[in-house]
Amino acid sequence: MKRERPKPLPDLKRETLGQVAVVLLPIEKLKVKSPRGVPFEREIHDFLVTSFNGYTVSSGNISGHWKDDTGHDHYGEHRQYKVAVAAQEAIHCFEVFLAGIAAEMQEECIYIEIGREIYLIYASAPKSEQTQ
């Protein structure tokens, strides 16, 4: 019995998009209007599509429990946003955006994962306070 030669695999196009960034945002605040009169979820959508050409969002049963630096227990339900960040400049841009959104949502900080690192982005001071 003669064995047939395996057919070569076809060529394919592959594009690396960067590291994965995952952010958890408080679900109850996403429908609230920002200071610009637009729901936060719309502003987040516009930013992610404009800055990163797209994103993936997961909602449902994403919740967490944590203690702050004073030992106080917290609980929250979240929507998860996932985006590819290709360069350090893109990561910094994303972090600055998140710090602003945190302040406007009156969140102390926002949970983020980039690659294998997990950290918090703290709310930035409003622009009026930064110039004083």
Concise overview:
It is built from 3 helices and 6 strands. With 132 residues, it is of the alpha+beta class.
| CATH class term | Alpha Beta
The poorly predicted ranges are none
Q: Could you give the count of β-strands?
A: 6
What is the CA–CA distance across the termini?
86 Å
The tally of structural domains comes to: 1
> What structural class is derived from the secondary structure elements?
alpha+beta
CATH fold-level assignment = Alpha-Beta Plaits
What percentage of the residues does DSSP assign to strands (E)?
A: 25-35%
Can you tell me the CATH architecture? 2-Layer Sandwich
The dominant shape is elongated
The overall pLDDT, averaged over residues, is 90
Q: Report the order of strands and helices.
A: EHEEEHEEH
Question: Roughly how much helix do the residues carry, as a percent range?
Answer: 25-40%
The radius of gyration over CA amounts to 20 Å
Major sheet attributes: 6 strands, antiparallel
Please describe the structure with a list of short key phrases separated by commas or semicolons:
132 residues; elongated; single chain; 6-stranded antiparallel β-sheet; alpha+beta; Alpha-Beta Plaits
